[in-house]
Amino acid sequence: MGIRNQTQVVEFVLLGFSGILYGQTYLALAFLAIYLVTVLGNLMIFTMIQLKSSLQTPMYYFLSHLSCLDMCLSSVTVPKMVVNLLLQQQTISYNQCMAQLFFLMTFIGAETLLLAVMAYDRYAAICKPLHYSHLMNTKVCTILAFATWIIGFLDSALHTTLSSRLEFCGVNQIHHIFCDLPPLMKIACNDVHINEMADHIVGLLMGGAPFLFTLFSYVFILSSILRIHSTTGKRKAFSTCASHLTVVFIYYGNALLNYQRPSAGYSLATGTLLSIMFCVITPMLNPLIYSLRNKEVKGALKKAVESWRPSKHNHFLH
């Protein structure tokens, strides 16, 4: 029996923006502008890391993967939201919903793990400086980076497979702005016990464990920084962590508000705002945080601009 026959639903209605009766076109244009900034900002970071030899280090290698994940995460949700707002028809087909869920879970899971890997990189650099080149050699970095993508893919495959077995009995209104696990389980009419159990167990493994690992890594990092005698040394050591620590707080804070919210007490408008913060705003902030707070990135940007200006001027002279 096909999946659609089991669900008796061929499309879903997304109610997240149902309370906005006017100005949907302006909201769509705002989301489009944010999306373009997100893609261009992360693409700029990724390209710069590939081209600048001074940025060929493990920290920036992982940052390039973070930029890819942010572009992908934003691309899973925002374009569909923009189209639906412009058409003023908040629908998504069943197959599109399952595809959106799959890629959303893949990129969220991979980014959660990657932030933990980046924390380990900072721990190795500051707490084990003499062994850093051995601990974080090219082979290790490659394995760690691609392992985050593979584990994210496997995590998503599990959730999507379980979600594809849900039956909706004609109920197709999702109280959300995109297809996600909690709202889908909420409208299912068959037993979701296995889905909920898998969600809790995998959530602890994919969310709780990396967060605790990141937290303990920074406890050791801060302890090592405080043992540095010179103020300049302390400032230099902490500056290498500041951008990543900021991203970690923003990402985990938004993830916690989105996926660990209480079952009651949250309005649809509040849930919509939190989802926008997590999947629309956060991917845009990451390149800005690394650009504004990181001296090496700012230096590379400045050199890129300076090298572009003379070449453009010389082109017109000839």
Outline the structure in words.
With 318 residues, the protein is mainly alpha-helical. It has one domain: Up-down Bundle (Rhopdopsin 7-helix transmembrane proteins), CATH 1.20.1070. It is 78% helix and 3% strand. It has eleven helices and three strands, in the order αβααβαααβααααα. It has helices spanning 3-7, 24-51, 58-87, 94-127, 132-135, 138-164, 181-187, 193-226, 231-259, 268-293, 295-317; strands at residues 11-14, 91-93, 173-174. It has a three-stranded mixed β-sheet with strand order 2-1-3. It is globular, with a radius of gyration of 22 Å. The N and C termini lie far apart (70 Å). Mean pLDDT is 85; it is low at 1-7.
Describe this protein with a few key phrases.
mainly alpha; globular; 78% helix; three-stranded mixed beta sheet; Rhopdopsin 7-helix transmembrane proteins; 318 residues
**Secondary-structure class:** mainly alpha
Number of helices: 11
Helix content: over 70%
**Major beta sheet, strand line-up:** 2-1-3
Cα shape: globular
Uncertain runs are 1-7
Total individual domains: 1
Determine the mean pLDDT: 85
The CATH H-level homologous superfamily: Rhodopsin 7-helix transmembrane proteins
What would you report as the Rg, rounded to the nearest angstrom? 22 Å
CATH architecture: Up-down Bundle
Please provide the count of β strands. Answer: 3
Query: Gap between N and C termini, in Å?
Result: 70 Å
Proportion of strand residues: under 5%
- And the CATH topology? Rhopdopsin 7-helix transmembrane proteins
Q: Helix-strand pattern, N to C?
A: HEHHEHHHEHHHHH
Q: Characterize the largest beta sheet: strand count, sense, and whether it forms a barrel.
A: 3 strands, mixed
In the CATH scheme, the class would be Mainly Alpha
